[in-house]
Amino acid sequence: MSRESTPRCELTRRDALEALPVRVNGAALSFKRVLAPEAQESTWRLVELFSVDLRPFEARLSWTGAHSASQYAQLTITRGTRICVWARSLTIDLANLSGSINKVAVSIGDTQAFTPSRNRYELRGTLSTFVARSLSIPPWAASLRVDTSNPTAMPNVTIRLIDGNGNLMAALLGNAQPGDGVPLGGAEKVELASTVVAEYRAAFNLTV
Q1: pLDDT for the residue numbered 8
Q2: pLDDT tier at 3, thresholds 50, 70, 90
Q3: For residue 41, what are the domain limits?
Q4: Is residue 1 a part of any domain in this protein?
Q5: DSSP character string of 139-156
Q6: Is residue 91 part of a domain?
Q7: I need a surface site. Which of 68, 94, 102, 107 has the fewest CB within 10 A?
């Protein structure tokens, strides 16, 4: 699908610069809406997000086309990224992942065709001994990589893929993951279990 940008595709606003407040260690993320532009018609939108202060942050994007249902994506961003979506309207919410103020610039351009992008979304937490932790799979996730703050804990971590009927699809140890992550396929959720207490990061590789 491609389309020349026309006046009916013109958004009400295309850019923003927001100083995200300090995130207190251990506190829940505090999201702030920075853009919510609309147009009369859909086209390919290339959204660029960049930390002027070179600090990590998280983004929640939702968008709708002129004749399509609302869609959304959650992104964990190291310093900056791009994402291309077919949209008439968008909303962009940001949260700081840094203990310092984080100025983030957002800009939206139009493009005649889809522009491939790669993004990730991370979940973090603590694994208790012999207590399984269930993780919801975010939209657009294709594979998963799990890491622990203590690398010696990896052989003690088990990753399980569960289908929509509660059946175990696959299981593997943390130190046996493929280099490009565990393919999620038809999994409905992921379960993590460990024989030792471990701080973990689950990084979902997204197709947007």
Answers
A1: 87
A2: very low
A3: 7-117
A4: no
A5: TTEEEEEEEESSGGGGGG
A6: yes
A7: 68
